Every structure is written in structure tokens, then in C-alpha cells.
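Task card 7
Instruction: Convert sequence to C-alpha cells.
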Amino acid sequence: MPRLGCLALALALLTIAGSARAQRVELAGRVTASRTVLAQRRVGEPRYVAISDLFYRDRTAIIEVLDLADQRVLQIKAKRATLENRFGAHRNGAVLPPLAEVVLYRGGVVGLAVSEASDGEERHYWYAELDARTGRLGRVADLAMLGAGNQIEIVGADPTGSEAWFALTEVVGRRRAVVLRRLDLATLTVHDEQRIALAPRKAADASHAVAVHAAADFSQFAIVEYVENDVGMSPGRVYVVDPAAGTSFDVAAPPTAYGVAFSADNRFVYLASAQLGTITRVDVAARKIDKQVAGPRYVHHLVIGPRGGKLFAFASSDHYAVYDLPDLKARNDALHPSGVAPAMVELHGNGIASLDGAYFVVPDAEDRHHPAPDRAYVIARLVE
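Output:
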């Protein structure tokens, strides 16, 4: 082969090897937090993820937020009485403390979706803010009053800190609808942006909660119905919603579509089926499924990489797959690094990606028969 041809071939091989090395998962660090009910959630700023709901220890209410930049767990504390006095439910002379999930963490303020502990027909929900330094209760706004059978889900807070989104599922017999509710964080006013009527399903299937996923800029949403093959479930749908335009369309839901991701430009939605081991692409402009490729079995998470050009597929496995976007071409499979692999084998849907796709946080593997007093978390960095 001529000298120039050899050089070109060597450069091409180096480019391919460099590309394979560039798209990888690496161990960024580990942290230890309290052993609480696992509730990982994005909280508006890519730097932070919540790793607990509100929980109580004696007379103290606690929330834990992970700072990814400094790799430390922030413990936000308030007096239990502060929350009981404002949101507690009175039953037989006792006060039941409220439940709460983290909506956002920004500028030293933690925003919570608070609900009264109620076994009645209705349950009251509020949005409330706590000062992370003093634990004092700040602004409060009514969020919803829901009857039995209706549900509310936190979709998330947008990265600009201007709004938070919630999904209210209304169920009346076989009729169901999802309302996308927006909370203006400057004024704490509530706006119902769009109501999407869902197609009828069998009563048993309609009782399954839908999962609502947002694009990174919260301009579009995917409402995903739960479907599982070989158990007699009726077909489900995935509804892609654009509240600003007031439009929506739907496509067939893949079975157990746990992994959902919008492309960086919002042109496509990617859906991963844990049951089938497939990744489906939805063309938003064409309003249809236009591609399907093989993916890992038991895939639980799809994450768009930090530069927007790669799709990482994470399953309950010591392997992961990476695809070129937007066409899902050039699949590359790799082993997780040794510090990450044990946690990913036990993934089972428990992980959470940062809003910018730069990190993935997952509970570390542990001895189930002899659990440690605290809970360890693995922080994986996604390199694109």
C-alpha cells in the first residue's frame, strides 16, 4: 500500500478508536446519605438531584439533595412542628405530619410538593418553599385538591427556574385524562396548559398510573401508558404534547417503556422497551414511529449525552449501549467500569440522570441480608 494510503488508514483507525474512547461511562465518585425511601428526582438545576422525599427523625423534618459538582449530600432540616402546624391533618386528637416531595432546589431554597396525610375522599396539595439554611417556611400556594382515584405527579422544574410542571390524572370509570399544570415560580400562580383525553382501556389497565416525561427545556411532554405483553393487558398509547401550540398526537406504546428521552432539538422522542429490548424513535414532525433498533434487555433509562449527539441506554446489567443520534446508528456496547458495574447490575429503574445528561446517579449494590446503616450512591459521569 502506498505510504499516503497507510497513513490515511492509520488516521481512520485512530479516529474510530478515539471516538469509542470518547463515549464512555466513568466513575466520578461516591457519597453516603441517610437510609430513606428512595425518591431520586431532578430539581431544576443540573448541578443537583434530590435523593430523598421529606422524612422525619424525632422532631426534625429532613430532605437530602446531592450536589454533583462538590459530590456532597446537602441535608436540609426544618422543625417537624413547622410543617405539622401548616399542613398537618388532625385525626382523633393527633396530628398526622404531611408528606412532601422535592420539586426544585435553587438559590438556597427547596421547593416541595406537599400533601396532607389523608385517608379520606379528598387530599389537599400545596407548593411550599423552605429556606435551606434556617429551615423556615416561606411562600406557600395551593396546588390541587384531588378526589379519590385522581393522582398528581411532579414532572419537574425547568432549568431557568421560572416554572414547575405537574401532571394531574383524572379517572372516572374508564374515562381518563391528563392535565398539564404549570406553576409560575415568580408569582406562584397555577395555569392548566393542556388537557389530554386518553383513549379508553380496560378498567384494570386504566388504574395504572401514567408516566410523564419532559423535554430538557420543558417545551414538550410525553405521556406514557404502562403496557406489558403476555398478561392480557389492553394496548396503550404514548401521547406527545406541545402545550404552547396546544397540540398532541399519540403512537402505540411499547411494552414496559421505562426509558424515555427527547432529542436535544426536540425533533424525536426515544422509547426503550425493557421487555422487548428495543429502542423506538418517534418523529415529532411526522407524528409517527419511524425507526426501531435492538437495545439492551431490561433497559430502564435512556439518557441524551451532555453534547446531545449520543444516546446512552442503561439496563440492569454490567454492560451499556451508546447510539449515534439522531439515527440510532453505530451502536457501541461496553462494560461499565468496575466501580460502577455492581450498582448498575442492581439498577431496576432506581437511577436518575442530571438534567444536562452529564451524570447518572444510582444506589450502590449492597448486601441485602446485612444492609449498612446508611445508603451509598454511585455517581457516574457520561463522557461524549
